[in-house]
Specification:
Layout lengths: L1 H21 L3 H11 L14 E2 L1 H8 L3 H9 L6 E2 L6 E4 H8 L9 E2 L2
Parallel strand pairs: 2-4
Antiparallel strand pairs: 1-3, 2-3
């Protein structure tokens, strides 16, 4: 019986929260967020956008290093090198942009 009461109570509370949101009351939004919080996955802390090697960038993108090299040659992905023909370095944000089909807006830069 208590489980039914809890479910009905939550339904009434979420109904009130939705009505408050529609009325423009921010407290309804907070109440709804509190009701949904137990059902949301825990957020993992984000790592800072560090430099990735070609192998790490390929693994992160779910592709092969060869595919990444082809994208580099076609200038489809932003990367930096210490010296011409040297090791390539990628930022995670650049790999994400490449996966979304975005092309870099500038030429390849050399790492300082």
């Amino acid at each position: 019986m208590s489980d039914t009461f809890t479910a009905n109570g939550a339904a009434r509370a979420s109904g009130r929260a939705i009505a408050a949101i529609i009325a423009g009351d921010d407290s309804g939004l907070r109440e709804l967020a509190e009701l949904l919080a137990p059902y949301m996955p825990a957020q993992e802390p984000l790592e800072p956008d560090r430099w990735l090697t070609t192998k790490e960038a390929a693994e992160y993108a779910g592709t092969s290093a060869n595919s990444l090299h082809k994208a580099m040659a076609a200038r489809e992905i932003h990367f930096e090198q210490d010296v011409p023909g040297g090791r390539a370095w990628f930022k995670r944000a650049d790999v994400d942009a490449w996966r979304r089909g975005e092309r870099p807006g500038s030429r390849v830069r050399r790492a300082a």
